[in-house]
Specification:
The protein is of the alpha/beta class. The protein has one domain: Protein-Tyrosine Phosphatase, Chain A, CATH 3.90.190. Strands 1-2-5-3-4 form a 5-stranded mixed β-sheet. Strand 3, helix 2 and strand 4 form a beta-alpha-beta unit. Helix 3 runs parallel beside helix 7, helix 4 crosses helix 9 and helix 5 runs antiparallel to helix 6. The two termini are 24 Å apart.
């Protein structure tokens, strides 16, 4: 057993992942705290090595949700998809291939986030997998910013983490990624402004949910996620 893997990490010590972070340690709406070793958010995992795979196993990861589309996974395969210690799910979250994003498709990344929240057909599948998962779970896309950021926002908001903490969690992404242009697999045609984790982007998504659904839980119910599965996720995530 890797002793480091038994510790609680805000950002996991994995050299080949720039943006692999815990969702544990946040204050929840009932005055408790989110559990550690339960949910990790990450970027492109295609380059992790055997030592890092072993670390994730020892950290307790048993489920992987890959939010990328076929255009990304066919080129940058997640090596955890072949591991026996975890179950791999490829559930594309974006409405259109990320490689096709440009200013003609969405004006800002905030608009992209709202379109995913309203038009994605796979949010229910993602949350049903989360509800039925055992042990630790990691979800990821390419940069670990947009699709991953939305799922992180929904998970944190579901258990009553404050808007301030949700926004702060999102903004850390750009600090962790020294240069988005150097991330392997990112489409070269994406406008530079899309690559920043501006608080305005995630606030647009968060405020859209609050304005139209009044809570994260109501939004998830509207997406046909059962109350039973919502309660399972809460039980998993809150100390």
């Amino acid at each position: 057993m890797n002793k480091k893997a038994q510790l609680n990490w805000v950002r996991l010590p994995l050299e080949n992942l720039e943006n692999c972070r815990e969702l544990g340690g946040y204050e929840t709406g009932n005055g408790s705290q989110t559990k550690w070793h339960t949910f990790l958010r990450a970027d492109n995992m295609a380059n992790i090595n055997e030592e890092e795979i072993e670390f994730l196993r020892d950290y307790g990861i048993k489920t992987v949700i890959d939010l990328r589309g076929d255009d990304e996974t066919s080129i940058h395969r997640n090596p955890l998809s072949n591991e026996d210690f975890c179950t791999y799910h490829n559930i594309p979250l974006a409405v259109q291939p990320v490689s096709e994003l440009n200013a003609d498709v969405v004006e800002t990344m905030g608009d992209f986030y709202v379109s995913v929240l309203e038009e994605s057909k796979t949010i229910k599948e993602v949350f049903d997998v989360i509800a039925e998962s055992d042990g630790g779970l990691v979800f990821h896309c390419m940069a670990g910013k947009d699709r991953t950021g939305l799922i992180a926002m929904l998970l944190l908001g579901l258990v009553g983490v404050s808007k301030k903490d949700i926004v702060s969690n999102y903004e850390v992404t750009y600090t962790n990624l020294e240069s988005f242009q150097n991330i392997k697999g990112l489409p070269t045609r994406i406008p530079e402004s899309y690559l920043y984790s501006s608080r305005d982007y995630i606030l647009m998504a968060y405020n859209h949910i609050m304005d139209h659904y009044h809570s994260i839980e109501s939004y998830l119910l509207e997406k046909d996620i059962s109350q039973e599965n919502i309660d399972k996720i809460k039980d998993k995530f809150i100390l």
